[in-house]
Amino acid sequence: MKKIILILMILSSLVSTAFAKIQVPEDSRWVYVAGDKTQEDIWMDLYTFEFGKSLDSDYRHKDHTFGRIWFIRNMYSSDTRLVLFYEFDLQCHTARLLSGTSYDGNGNVLASVPKSYTEEAIVPDTIGETYFMIAQTLEKIHNDKEMLNLFYKMAQEDSDKYRKL
């Protein structure tokens, strides 16, 4: 997974865009996760996260609980946006990239990677661990409407503040 992200980042840094710049997502479905507007920031799609069994019936851990979440990673110095769809095995503490595409500031596709069938261990103190912790937390509260609504409200408020910076 790290290799795929690195390849996307390298490819995207080779392309410069003169007309448009990557911006924070304005759609309220995307909520701020981490970062800053000078280097990079990360956003999560509130509308499409889900939990259940693996999408692949032949996957060896198919009976484990999985979380699937879309993320946006904006890299301002290279004017690049990565849109990533991960599947997290919450029992084994692993992840696989189901979809990854990088875009320039004009929204043009720079690179796209196919689904990975190889799960990667979650490495401590990395952005992958941040993604995994989000999946773990959401899995714990996604059936509790009160907690989930509180999470939505707080995530929206934090995202609105960040967008105004």
Describe the structure.
With 165 residues, the chain is α+β, with helices and mostly antiparallel strands. The protein has helices spanning 2-13, 127-141, 145-164; strands at 30-35, 40-45, 50-52, 66-75, 80-89, 94-104, 109-113, 120-121. Strands 1, 2, 3, 4, 5, 6, 7 and 8 form an eight-stranded antiparallel β-sheet that branches. The chain is globular, with a radius of gyration of 16 Å. The protein starts with a helix and ends with a helix.
How are the SSEs ordered, and which strands pair?
Layout: H1 2-13, E1 30-35, E2 40-45, E3 50-52, E4 66-75, E5 80-89, E6 94-104, E7 109-113, E8 120-121, H2 127-141, H3 145-164
Antiparallel strand pairs: 1-2, 2-4, 3-4, 4-5, 5-6, 6-7, 6-8
The rounded distance between the terminal residues' Cα atoms is 32 Å
Helical residue percent? 25-40%
Secondary structure: number of strands: 8
N to C succession of SSEs: HEEEEEEEEHH
Largest β-sheet summary:
8 strands, antiparallel
Structural class: alpha+beta
State mean pLDDT (0 to 100 scale): 86
Radius of gyration: 16 Å
Shape assignment: globular
Poorly predicted runs are 14-19
Quote the beta fraction. 25-35%
Number of H- or I-type helical stretches? 3
Summarize the structure.
The protein has 165 residues and is of the alpha+beta class.
Supply database-style keywords.
single chain; 165 residues; alpha+beta; eight-stranded antiparallel sheet; 8 strands; 28% helix; globular
